[in-house]
Amino acid sequence: MFFSGSESPAKRGQKVIGEVYYFEENPMLDCNQFVINDRKTGELALFDSGNGISLKSLFEGMKTLGLNYQNITKVYLTHEHVDHVLGLYPLMNILKNNPPELHAYGETAKILREGDESKIFPGNLGISPKMFGLEINPLAINELDINEPIQIGSEISFQVYYTPGHSLGSISYYEPNKKILIPGDLVFTGGSFGRYDFPGGSLGALIESIKFVNELDVKYLLPGHMGISDNGNQQIDYSYKMVQSLKNYF
């Protein structure tokens, strides 16, 4: 196995706002994860599944905040890359008696339905599922409709926006009332932004997608890597200025 997760500590978690929780990525090719609790039913929605090896750490982190992983009923994905989707395979096995619904958009949904390993593991990373102790198998994926909001409980309703540039399947989830943005690997804090050199990536599309989310009213920026922010628009604007500067070099 490439990484040893058996003794991994609990993922550091914190409440962001209301019943929205953030769990920090583990070192070595993992991602931030977000859990939303439906207060009425106790059902949990998970955003991105991590690298699989970090799953036990996520469960431990959830436990410290009073969240039971067995109540995960829906998983929403931001895009198709290894560090965001590998956790689906052990998660579906652990919860096989009551499996959660899996939701993705466009190319991400297609890749996961087909079990297309080459698209989950971009070739220039030089890694494979065996390094994670996993096999890639076709999954049943519910196709997200960007015209249909995602309702979680009575307080959270996400709009889904197609925001390519990092990958062909990249989407962002935006909650206009709480001003929450979950952009996957589109844009990060500190002026950072997603890589565009993987297959399906595009600097031009990345710039346009960051410009688009920069025009939304964002307080809580909850990206796939690095830290989160409660000063979202300022962070996105900083990243937009930084990514625009790359146009002068290409």
Outline the structure in words.
With 250 residues, the chain is an alpha/beta fold. It folds into two domains: 144 residues, Ribonuclease Z/Hydroxyacylglutathione hydrolase-like (Metallo-beta-lactamase, Chain A, 4-Layer Sandwich), CATH 3.60.15; 93 residues, Metallo-beta-lactamase, Chain A, CATH 3.60.15.10. The protein is built from seven helices and twelve strands. The chain has a seven-stranded mixed sheet. The protein is globular and about 55 Å long. The chain starts with 12 loop residues before the first strand and ends in a 6-residue tail after the last helix. The N terminus is likely disordered.
Write the layout of secondary structure elements.
Layout: E1 13-17, E2 20-23, E3 33-37, E4 44-47, H1 55-64, E5 72-76, H2 82-85, H3 88-94, E6 101-104, H4 106-114, H5 117-120, E7 142-143, E8 150-152, E9 156-162, E10 171-175, E11 180-182, H6 203-214, E12 220-221, H7 232-244
Parallel strand pairs: 4-5, 5-6, 6-7, 11-12
Antiparallel strand pairs: 1-2, 2-3, 3-4, 8-9, 9-10, 10-11
Helix pairs in contact: 6-7
What's a concise summary of this model?
This protein is of the alpha/beta class and 250 residues long.
